[in-house]
């Protein structure tokens, strides 16, 4: 039986010997340092590796992965905060121009949020960051897989909203130096949808989908906010009703 790590070891060798790869790539990256323009915040799920899905090369993406691609709100204290530290380093240290929150279909973390989980002492408080999304989606009247998708997408919006609570992120957006993007990867279709803040809906991903940038009122609150989970869910329910009738 082949050792599970042998595949990885062989993979390193294949990467090194692949003629499509610049043999000087890593020595150049070592000399120049990393200058990624895009940060991706993705889920730890083995099926949705941001680098693999986007066919990016080493040095192109600054990636944070955690359970359910969740961004907690800004809240500095004496505790260590892995997600916030990565965001801080990406924005302030590397000066990324874009942050993509990449949620996905059939997310185990979001399922744990929806259904509760027993015996996992770190998962519960972590996914509980999106408790307001869970509550709003639970009251939507949608059931089953539709409801789970709605919660997965609402959590992407919740993470975008939480990114705006970091003061240096909001400042950079207002100055036109940073844009936020919310994507949700459909496993059934093998492609991502993107959150369109103008229509508060997820639409096929193109470069023309408006991001959260200086054209969007990031100071708006309540239902008026383009990142209102209530607004998004209400709109999705309305659309589901129209489709059903
Ligand atoms: Zn996931």
Unreliable segments of 5+ consecutive residues:
none
Terminal residue distance: 55 Å
Bound molecules: zinc ion
CATH class: Alpha Beta
By CATH, the architecture is named 3-Layer(aba) Sandwich
Biggest sheet record: 6 strands, mixed
Would you kindly provide a written description of the structure presented here, covering whatever features stand out?
This protein is an alpha/beta fold. It has one domain (34-244): Beta-carbonic Anhydrase, Chain A, CATH 3.40.1050. It is 41% helix and 15% strand. The chain is built from 10 helices and 6 strands; from the N terminus they run ααβαβαβαααααβββα. It has helices at 6-17, 25-32, 50-53, 82-93, 108-115, 123-127, 131-138, 144-163, 167-174, 229-244; strands spanning 38-43, 61-66, 98-104, 179-186, 191-196, 201-204. The protein has a 6-stranded mixed beta sheet with strand order 2-1-3-4-5-6. β4 (179-186) and β5 form a beta hairpin. The mean pLDDT is 94. The protein binds zinc ion (ZN). Residues 43, 45, 68, 104, 107-109 line the site of zinc ion (ZN). Zinc ion binds at residues 43, 45, 68, 104, 107-109.
Break the fold down into its secondary structure elements and pairings.
Blueprint (H helix, E strand, L loop, with lengths): L5 H12 L7 H8 L5 E6 L6 H4 L7 E6 L15 H12 L4 E7 L3 H8 L7 H5 L3 H8 L5 H20 L3 H8 L4 E8 L4 E6 L4 E4 L24 H16 L1
Parallel strand pairs: 1-2, 1-3, 3-4
Antiparallel strand pairs: 4-5, 5-6
Helix pairs in contact: 7-8, 8-10
Zinc ion binds next to helix 5.
